[in-house]
Amino acid sequence: MGKSLLIFIAAIAVSCTFFVTVGYMKDKDGGSGVVATVDDEPITVKELMPKLIAHRSEVLAYFKNKYNAIPGVGFWTSSFDGEIPSEMLKKAALDECVAIKVQQIAGKEKGLVKDISYSQFLKDLKKENARRKTAIENKKVIYGPEQYTEAVYFSILFSDLVHKLKGKADERLIVSEEEIKQYYDNAIKENKYKKAGKVKVEKISFAFTAGDDKSKKAAEEMAEEVRKQFANGHDFKNLSDLDGNNAEIKVQFGEQIFDSTTIREDYMPATHEFTEQAIGLSIGQVSEVFEYNNAYYVVKSIEKTDEGFNNLDEVNESIKQLLQDKKYNSYVDNLVKHATVVIYNKVYRKLELY
């Protein structure tokens, strides 16, 4: 990585850690202060903080790319053509909390969860970690980490709730065969779902820890740097031994073949996105960096033959999942649109970031 890029990354780490610490110190009631309510359900400071952390990198990158702004003293409260980093960050974090809260409310109304308060979540987290600790002490098998972090455990529980909500779907989320056929026909016109007579790619993945924003950002930076080197003509295999650059990021290099023997697996909902990225490349073309299954990937096409398009029945389930996800996202957007959101400015304005 270039010296300026390393300086920017270091500045991100220092400034972000500092503003989070100050935020907690200024919250005299330990994070229980209410920032906003969504249909009378509270969003607390403690609940908002992980989202501030999650969105900080994208806000820093936005101001770096648009204004070449480097984090430092006064950065978060400075105005850049009327745009203030701290206000943008707080809005992004609150918007995500509102979207989460309307889904939690929907889950509560459908009897999928009883208590959606963040305080109850923290009690559940403490109880789960105590259970895991006791199990380990008693030499019992546990699955997953020894202890869950706040962000990871919340992600697990919320993902489970979303899955259950989709299972309780009303007619608005049902995907018809006609919709699947229409999507498929349009995709074919756009040259998608090409049948892989044989496509062979080289790939490098940079795996990050789910829920760890610092790990995720580091993985993305490494992938972007490698992609630039590919574009400059460097050999793929010469760049594969990168584990020494960051011990927290697991780097893997390999080759993958897509053909008639792998088509069913390639177009399963869980693998559909990666397949489309890989087989859409021309021979010798290097993909943009893309996120897939808790890792950032760079892929290069090295061999390809053309044998037409996949039949509808081969990609039916994958398309159905994609359309259901789109409908669910629209459903959530509608919940947000019709929710009554009240921001407690006395608390919201005191979230000072430095």
UniProtKB/TrEMBL annotation:
Q: Which PROSITE patterns match?
A: PROKAR_LIPOPROTEIN
A molecular function annotated in GO for this UniProt entry is: isomerase activity
Question: In the UniProt record, does the keyword Transport occur?
Answer: no
Q: Which reaction does it catalyse?
A: [protein]-peptidylproline (omega=180) = [protein]-peptidylproline (omega=0)
Q: Which residues belong to any copy of the PpiC domain?
A: 175-316
Stored Gene3D superfamilies? 3.10.50.40, Porin chaperone SurA, peptide-binding domain (1.10.4030.10)
Q: What is its EC number?
A: 5.2.1.8
Record keyword Signal present = yes
Q: Which UniProt keywords apply?
A: Isomerase, Rotamase, Signal
Q: What class of enzyme is it?
A: isomerase
| Family annotation (PANTHER family) | FOLDASE PROTEIN PRSA (PTHR47245:SF1), PEPTIDYLPROLYL ISOMERASE (PTHR47245)
Q: What is this protein called?
A: peptidylprolyl isomerase
**Organism from which the protein derives:** Cohnella yongneupensis
Recall the taxonomic lineage recorded for the source organism: Bacteria, Bacillati, Bacillota, Bacilli, Bacillales
